[in-house]
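note to self — DONT lose this again. spent like an hour looking for the file last time. sequence + predicted structure for the chain T wanted, 547 res
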Amino acid sequence: MSASWNFSIGRRGFLGGGAAAAMLLSSRPAQAADQPAAGKNQVVIGISQEPTVFNPLLPHIEVDDGIYLNLFSPLWSIDDRGRLCPELARVVPTQENGLVSEDGLVWTIPLREDVKWHDGQSFSAEDVMFTFALLKNAEFPAFSRQGYEYMDRVEQTGPYEIRWHMNKPFAPLHSIIASTFIVPRHHFESVEKWSDSHFAEHPVGTGPFQWVQRLSGEKIVLRANPGFYGPRPALDYVTFSYIPDLTVMFTQFQVGAIDYIGMQGIPPNRYHEALQIPGRDIISIPQSFIEGLIFNTARPQFRDQAVRRAIYMALDKESVRKYLYQDILISSESYLPRQSPYFNPDLPAHVFDPTQAARILAEAGWKKGFDGVLHKDGVRLEFTNSTTSGNQLREQTQEVFQENLANIGIRMHIRNMPPAVMWGEYWLMSEFDTALASVDYMLGADPDSASYFNGRNSPALHGAGQNIFEYQNPMLDSILDMGSVVLDTDKRKEIYKKIQEILRQELPMAPLFQIVSIEGKKTGLSGCRPNINVRSTCWNLREWRWV
């Protein structure tokens, strides 16, 4: 059997699918049946942000990945040692095993034949073909199309084999495929009518856990998939309990109402208190997320790089790190974590110098008005800063930065909102002025950051990507493009060293800290391992067990 799909579909961009995307954010009504009973082998995971997007191909935030990694399967995954592990593919294709051609243009993927969807239907190559077709469809508001634009042709060469042809080699493709979850073709009428599906109300995957229910604003329940193609999970049920207030979540961890606290975890100012809780294990783990002050560079006050540089210099980030975050987070000047082999250690260190910051703004033509606020050409240096409401440390950080900036004539208003609002259209479509956010800018273990920093990838400008900064730099775009096609690791390190230098100078994102997650679990819960290559600490729930 052989088939091929032509992906030459006209592009109308992200906004064309906006209304349809909203239809997929609905929640399933509460059900009384099939709930975890007392005494069942289960784990309750406390999360501070609510998962709301259940089609893994749509735009989403990190907390949603905790669901995807357990409900769905990619062709292969990345483990905590950076190794690629076969999932729906029988083997990871490489040039060494002959499944990737010497020129990097032809990839052959043999698929598993023993996989069932959660509804009992058989998985086949058609599901992979359908998933790729969605990502290539310009009408579909994809989370990212990065890499797929280089696939000229995808062929189904058998019921359990596919082959794709690239128009150029693309170094991050293994990492991209590892974070692409395959969806079931039979739950969608067609590629063009993807929004007609009720898939978001009851998502169906091939992963180690399957959907039970969602109570909007409260919890999501998953149960072990008895037909999983790998070893059956040791846990019978997993409940993701949504607790937006970090203080309340910490209290529930103290009293034992939740078994594991992750995804922002224990606030650093509660770290020493957490160490004293009996029957709990507390671990601080560096993450791939970089906390930063995010600029919307399309706003007139931030178009000038001198303004962004002055604002960064005016922020007393070291005092925030030392006193608010209890000296736990790692100061950063890069979008990459220090643990990445591509990390550039030679970037200039941040200097807190309000006097020099004021001088930079004066030299750039900004003058104080009658109310003390700087202005230039009818534009005031006044803006809002947003983050999730209920995050006390970020709110305290905002207050420090607000005072820092007021001291040099910049007025920053604080406008926080619930996570579902903050990380919805407001974030994805660049409706904010500035934001405080932690972002993993890598592609799995790969340093490629084109989705965030290439000018073609801004959703607000009809691009498919995550350039929420609306940042435009043609020179950087060219270097990012070069980094994606060079396969030699040493040459790529030099390219990404330069990329980090440019971003540190241009500052579409003012880097503050590399996140160190303080995670907590009940003593006796094993299998919880950090993985800097994925965006959720719940990446391997299939291995968690009580001992």
